[in-house]
Amino acid sequence: MEISQDDFMLFVDRALDGMLGIVEGLGDDLANRNPGLPGANSPFAILYHSVAVCHYWIGVHLADRDFKRDRPSEFVATGKVADLRESVLDLKRQLREDIMHVQGDQPPVTGPNQQYFPLGSEYEGWTQGAALIHTLEELAQHHGQMELTRDILLKG
After folding, report:
1. CA separation (Å) from 114 to 8, 15, 118, 128?
2. What top-level class would CATH report for the domain 5-151?
3. 58-79 per-position pLDDT tens digit
4. Sequence ranges of the domains in the chain
5. With contact defined as beta carbons under 8 Å apart, do 58 and 112 qualify?
């Protein structure tokens, strides 16, 4: 079974555009606000983390690009929505280049740092296609998380 690069990017774009729309709709103040729930993150931090997830899984492990990641700082990131918008637009352009190198049935070029991998030893035997699906899984989860976070912030 194969999916096209355009098919994959359609859903990546939908998730990223949806998340970007949330932070833009909230503006700098609310987008950087934590909803006050234990362990919750601001919408800005969630999208910042999501951008890093894409660079890490697709850029580093599939396209063999260099990307330095500080995962703990992603969850407390703050900043201007306009700057985050530029990061998302740059990411979307970069991903289109990155996925041109993907061979879905082949192993990733490099394996992930175990601290970033939620499934531990289940990574063994993953393909590049699985890494793409995992990235999309993360984006979909975080998009939903941001929708709920936005709703909480707007009610407060």
Report:
1. 26, 26, 8, 17
2. mainly alpha
3. 999 999 999 999 999 999 999 9
4. 5-151
5. no
